[in-house]
Amino acid sequence: MLTTSLVLGGSLLAAGAAAAADAPGAGVTAVIQPTMTSEEIAIEGGHSIQGGLFTLKTANGVIQTYCIDIDHPVNITSGVEYQESDWKSSSLGRKEKAQDAAKIRWILENSYPQVTDLKKLATDAGVQGELTKEDAAAGTQAAIWRFSDGKNAIPKDSQAKQLRDYLVSEKNKGIAAEPKPSLSLTPDSASGKPGNKLGPFTINSSASEVKLALSGDAADKVKLVDKDGKPVTGLTGPVAKDTQLFLDVPAGTPDGAATVTAAADTVVPSGRVFLSKGYTPEKHSQTMILAGSTKLSVTDAAKGSWKQGKGALLDSTAQVECDSNGVRVTVTNGGDEAATVTVKPGKSLTVQPGKAESVVVPVAEDTAYDITVTGPNGFSKEFKGILDCKVSSVTPPTSSPSAAPVPTGTPTGTPSGTPSAAPSTAAGQPTPAGSSSAPGTTGDLAQTGGNDATPMIAAAAGGLVVAGGAAVFVLRRRGRHGRSAA
User: Fold this and answer.
1) What CA–CA distance (Å, rounded) separates 245 from 373?
2) d(CA 135, CA 139)
3) 229 CB-contact burial (10 Å; exposed 0-12 / middle 13-18 / buried 19+)
4) For a disulfide at 383, which of 21, 94, 414, 453, Cβ 3.0-4.6 Å?
């Protein structure tokens, strides 16, 4: 979720719109699709769920993800959106999860779909028998849950189980480095006085080429330069980590602003985290991790503003910091007078000219936050979101899922124990609550995780639009990945 900054200074008055506080500058937004490549997986405690590979659609391609957050729901009511993010804004960003994150990265790089040759994967993993893509997806997901959620998850299929056992064995040496973002340009605003260089704007990308451009009414009055003051219009080759760019604003330039736009085509690296863009508990959805992507076009932008005269020039950004159990709010002052800023609830900062100050606002796990930053001359900015930094445990069901009744009309192969309270359907409509594809197939959204007290996907119109005016359906069920226990 892009962190949005508001630039204000002197006598300029404005009110900031609500913005999500999360990993800054992430480039890819995607919408979850109602199909998965999955099979049945037994979870320690006696219940089974469908688990495997999700597909999410971007504006110009697709990405595939696995779950790293089994006890939160997959919410696709109206088609939930996801945003590429950094590890620090997820459970993987906690210090105690560093080794687990490295193990997950190794799994992603050494299993399906990064390894598309399933015969080779089976040979490498010592799998006896044919390894299908459903086996590979289920085995990989079960292995990931071992490290992301501490779950002893065992696929029901023998080949999938063998793959899972290989992926969690001592052969998994881990990959410690967090993958580069597809494209990020941060912060998304900076302000200052003419005669100075505004910034720095920090760019990171996995792309081999990044194009840069200036736009806006005052774009012809300034130059985009590197840290050495040399004009720059693009970057080629591997982009060095934390490459810095500046807006060079000549002295005497009239008040104005310019937008820096970065654009690239890239395959997003596996291991990037994707966070739900839902800002309330009802709309929030579980965290995903990228398994693979097509080549995507991505952009990011930042705004530079300058103003003559005396006064503070304030900007504000915010980012979830899971290792700090809260949201870090940063306020910068590009003006020439100090400013006292209030960060509600309960914090205040004094920011000197040319300086930045930050404070962590504590937020309880799995709760919505609403943080307002206010300062001199009408400066105001609001940040909203959900803190989802920890995985939680599900209390195992007291009865075996195999003893739960199977409702009439349950498709062949659907896990037993599908909730018997599923509503009836009209002729020609898909089976709703509790439905999933038969194990070993690619079908409707497999329900990945969640406990029986968590209502999942609600039937809703306006979510996924089928070409040709076909009806729109969103599955509703209990348990995130296809829980088979009632």
Assistant:
1) 26
2) 6
3) exposed
4) 21
Name the amino acid, one letter, at 164.
R
Q: Which two tokens stand for residue 54?
A: 């999700």
Task: Supply the pTM of this predicted model.
Answer: 0.77
Q: What is the residue whose two structure tokens read 């006085």?
A: 193
What confidence category does residue 91 fall into, taking pLDDT thresholds of 50, 70 and 90? very high
Task: Measure the CA–CA gap between 65 and 53, rounded to whole angstroms.
Answer: 6
Torsion of CA 410, 437, 465, 421, to 10 degrees: 30
Cα distance between residue 101 and residue 310, in whole Å: 48
What helix, strand, coil percent values describe the chain, rounded to 5? 15, 35, 50
Q: Token pair of 123, please? A: 């040979």
Helices 158-167 and 133-148, axial angle in degrees (round to 10): 40
* Residue 341 CB partners (closer than 8 Å, separation 6+): 314, 316, 331, 348, 349, 350, 351, 357, 373, 374, 375, 379
Q: CB under 8 Å to 173, separation ≥6 — which residues?
A: 106
What does the DSSP 8-state code read for residue 243? E
Return all residues near 110 (Cβ < 8 A) that are at least 6 apart: 124, 167, 172
Residue type, 139: G
Question: How far is the first Cα of the chain from the last one, in angstroms, to the nearest whole number?
Answer: 35
d(C-alpha 392, C-alpha 95), whole Å: 17
- CA trace torsion 187, 25, 386, 80 (10° rounding): 150
23 token code pair:
């990993």
In angstroms, what CA-CA distances link 163 with 36, 49, 125, 439?
Answer: 19, 18, 6, 17
What confidence tens digit (pLDDT) does each residue in 1-47 have? 233 332 333 323 233 445 655 444 458 999 999 889 999 999 988 79
The DSSP element (H or E) to which 106 belongs, if any, is helix 98-110
Contacts of 437 (CB under 8 A, 6+ apart): 35, 36, 38, 50, 413, 443, 444, 446
Q: How many CB atoms lie within 10 A of CB 484?
A: 27
> What digits encode the pLDDT tens for the residues 193-237?
999 999 999 999 999 999 999 999 999 999 999 999 999 999 998
Given a contact cutoff of 8 angstroms between Cβ atoms, the answer to whether 480 and 83 are in contact is: no
Written as six digits, the tokens of 235 are: 């970057």
How far apart are the C-alpha atoms of 40 and 441, rounded to whole Å? Answer: 10
